[in-house]
Amino acid sequence: MKGKISDWKDDKGFGFIVSDNQSNKIFFHISDIETKQRRPKVDDLVDFDLIRDDQQRLKAKHITINGLSSIKNKSNIEPVKKNTFDYIAIIILLLSIIAGGFTFYQTRDLSKIILYGIVAIVSFIFLSRQKKPKEKNFTCARCKSIAEFDKRTIQAWNKGVFKLYCSACHQQWLVTQPEPEQPIRSGSSKSGCLGIFIAITLLPIFTFISIYSWLSS
Description:
Blueprint: E1 2-9, E2 14-19, E3 25-29, E4 45-52, E5 58-65, H1 84-107, H2 114-127, E6 137-139, E7 146-148, H3 151-158, H4 167-175, H5 186-216
Antiparallel strand pairs: 1-2, 1-4, 2-3, 4-5, 6-7
């Protein structure tokens, strides 16, 4: 059947279609749309199948928006991958830690290893940088529509999350979640991670210093 979208609630993910040969509005859900290039809009011309649900209400299924092809987007997003510069940074990080420990072993002078510590910290910051996915779009895990990556979804992707939601579905998900008791500040989180890294980096060096001093006494 052919028709036109007369109502669309983007935040709810459903709307109504008016067919060419019926005056009644026909309900549809975004998950029944097979053209995934964009979300539906009011006045979109569509083709659809008319069915009845479990409660014998009319419902539109297998909806295609005219002018868009019903191709399926790949739902699998490639994970974050390390490139050549990442492996170089890892090698520099390890070498700076080893060189710093060996330098102190020979000189017993902490001022001699400051440069190695700076290089190690810079390498760690470079490895912790936020990357961008190769794909510009992703398939929403809820409504199955195609959405563009934004700051929120890029951050989630960098954390290894592949079940991503478009903005409308994300807002619906937030409504069902309890509010956090205390807001988490991203700045303090980053500084905390950096502090942990510095502690982990310097711990072997100071352990070595303590053992060396104990054996020398």
